[in-house]
Design goal:
Blueprint (H helix, E strand, L loop, with lengths): L3 E3 L1 E10 L5 E3 L8 E8 L4 E5 L2 E2 L10 E7 L7 E11 L7 E2 L4 E4 L15 E6 L10 E4 L5 E2 L3 E3 L6 E3 L29 E2 L2 E2 L8 E2 L5 E3 L6 E7 L8 E7 L9 E6 L2 H4 L6 E10 L8 E8 L8 H5 L7 E8 L6 E8 L6 E8 L11 E11 L11 H8 L3 E5 L6 E6 L6 E6 L9 E5 L4 E4 L2 E4 L3 E2 L7 E6 L8 E5 L6 E5 L3
Length: about 500
Amino acid sequence: MASYTLLSGYLALGSAVSSAGVITELSGNGYARVPVTVSYDPVANVVSFAPGVTFPTATGTWSAYTVAALFDAASGGNEIAYAALPGAATASGANVSFPQGIFTIACLSGVLVKGGVTPAGVQLGVLNNADVTTSGTAVYIGPNPLSLSASYALTANATSYNDLTAPPILFRNLLDGGDFTVNPFQRNIATLASAGIIASAITSTPTYFADRWFGVGGASSSLLMGSVANVTVPGFSVALQHQRSSGNANTSPLYLGQILEPSDVVRLQGQGVVFSVLGLAGSGFTGGTYTISIVSGTDTAANTTAAKLIATTWAGQSTIGTATVTPSTTASRAFVTATVPAAATQLAVLISWTPSSTAAGSYDYLQFLIAQLELGTSPGTWERRDIQVETEICQRYAWAIPEPAASVIVGAGFNPTTSTQVFYLAAPVQFWKAPTVTVAAGTFKTNQASVATACTITAGTTHTPNAISVNGSSTSTAGQGTLLQGGGGSGYILASADF
């Protein structure tokens, strides 16, 4: 098929559409049409817009929009096609955005022409290949209506669109565990958590709770992170909650962040990236706004730690993109773009907010349903990965073993003396580096000649990216093999290679 030069158009929003298909376009409060590029897929025989579309920020409350239309000019001009949106929506102080692929226009059979035949329709491009008889001839599409993919639905705040059923494009999201519906939350276990909330409030030491996500505040902060039910947006069921403890009045900034593994940063050098979140605030949120940021650095892998990130002591550390978000109690999408420096070896995303001096109530929090970092200049559809895939990705950085029921085997080892044991536990996936191991003794037992024997476990001294070791203290027969097994208590073994 001959190629052609793409022509640009403009996407508009309207509050109504006549029986003749003419929209009543919005106006005022920062509204303007957005330029788009029309892209043709010869296999599917459809045209669409590339990349996604984001309208200017509403400076006031827009009229409820119920329809989108494609025009051939920034103002006035000709309406090419339109599509009804799934329900009325308004925008105020937010951006309305549509990801690439949400709108398509089906081409009629044989409607791409190379000669003088001009079917009813709209000019799409200009033929420019030498394999056609007449070069420079206009190409047309038929008068088909613009169609809105059925796999898209408005998010709860109606200022962006959320892809619910489109086939997944795996590993477009560069963040691990960013979809909190399938984040394994391995630390959400007895002793480390209670009722889904981290057991010990976080102060100035970066601490992980949701897999791959750390939280940190100041020395007098009291930050709680939790896995909470949230079904306000179809397709999601769990949110990561980032909350100041009730009664705390400290005003130090509170952070939530993820650091990319250095080897994953290399492929992003010199390219544009977009960080977006789907979040909301509690009814007692005192921060007013929150900030989303992308941070880069040029330091070594050994110095790629959350503590150094928050202290701004990475070599070459720079905030390369930042946006301020005013949240509501309804979920909305916010995003920030940046270009990764060509020499970057470190990259992180940060969410931060500063609470007021008013003592926190029970609802001084932010919740996030999903977070995504991707290549590009505008946010794409949310990537939804299988829970098993997400778990295995996250276990490259942390592996938690909660103490199981009595007699359930955890690992195998031997008795080097009459009062000590060494157990070997193979990692489920390879860690990115040798982990640090911590334990809570609970009521773990060793199996000595088929007898469950009291034991106090401690972390071993030798750990590799492929396995960890745990020590025991049972009375035993030197030289015999033994097993480590549960006692039904609240102990755990945690191996962490996080940053």
